[in-house]
Amino acid sequence: MSTDAADLQIGPHDDEPHDESLAARLNWLRAAVLGANDGIVSTAGLVVGVAGATTDHRAILVAGVAGLVAGAISMAAGEYVSVSTQRDSEQALLAKERRELAEEPEEELAELADLYVQKGLSQDLAMQVAEQLTEHDALGAHAEAELGIDPDELTNPWHAAWASMLAFTVGALLPLLTIGLSPADVRLWVTGFSVVVALALTGWASARLGQSPAGRAVVRNVGGGVIAMVVTYGIGALVGGL
Fold first, then answer.
1. Is residue 228 part of a domain?
2. For the whole prediction, is pTM greater than 0.85?
3. C-beta separation of 229 from 195 below 8 A
4. Residue 199 in contact with residue 40, Cβ under 8 Å?
5. Domain containing residue 164
6. What mean pLDDT comes out for the span 139-157?
7. Is 4 within a domain?
8. CA atoms of 91 and 75, how far apart (whole Å)
9. Nearest to 41 by CA among 235, 222, 233, 242
10. What is the pLDDT of residues 152-192, one digit of tens each?
11. Which residues contact 35 (CB under 8 A, 6 or more apart)?
12. Are the CB atoms for 202 and 167 separated by under 8 Å?
């Protein structure tokens, strides 16, 4: 049944809240999921590999703790450098846009209108929209239309770094505690099972938060973790037998 546009109530869709920018949400999600997955897989691969080479409980725990600390710091540093580079690029683009708006306001207005024409608006309507948006927030309008950047929601390198380090640590604790607390005769099986469950949960959670199909995310996570553990255990057993 068709609805007259004049009767529609303007506002966000009930099922799509807009209390946080999508870019910021995806940045947090990417850092957290990457950190958790890396913590689970890398630490599980490390302790399982060492367990394949030796039954020394202390050696396994030392390797696991060292891997957790080194991995958490590495993830935080990597996220900070990566996101800082992205933020520097965004700030440089915004500075360029500010300069152009100050020096060539008419050309920038025409450019903004043309962008809306390319999106399907008529030339007259596109110019009206461009003029109104420029009066309201010239930089914000140009940054969104030209660059896909929200000047008020730039990526934060510290947020990404802390989120990644915390997620890595939480993920790494699972295989470390599992293999450290389980009886020697079943610790590899218990660790493998717990890692598979954890990776399935992180895959499902990332899919749900990102509103994407859960099945493929779960298969990717679990498959990668299983391959890592099998390979590292084989290498550990091979080296330990020399």
1. yes
2. no
3. yes
4. yes
5. 22-93+157-240
6. 77
7. no
8. 24
9. 222
10. 777 788 888 888 899 999 999 999 999 988 888 898 999 99
11. 75, 79, 163, 164, 165, 166, 167, 168, 171
12. no
Is residue 36 assigned to a domain?
Answer: yes
Length of the chain: 242
Instruction: Yes or no: say if 40 and 192 are a contact pair by the CB < 8 Å rule.
Output: no
158: Cα separation from own chain's centroid: 14
Q: How is residue 73 written in tokens?
A: 């710091």
- Which residues contact residue 34 at a Cβ distance below 8 angstroms, ignoring those fewer than 6 apart? 75, 164, 167
* Interhelix angle 214-240/22-53, nearest 10 degrees: 30
pLDDT classification of 10: cutoffs 50, 70, 90: very low
The stretches of 104-186 forming alpha helices (DSSP H) are 105-118, 123-142, 157-181
For residue 15, give the H/E element and its range. none
CA distance 32 to 168: 8
Q: Total structural domains in the chain?
A: 1
CB 128 within 8 A of CB 178: no
Residue 87, domain member (yes or no) = yes
Type of residue numbered 35: G
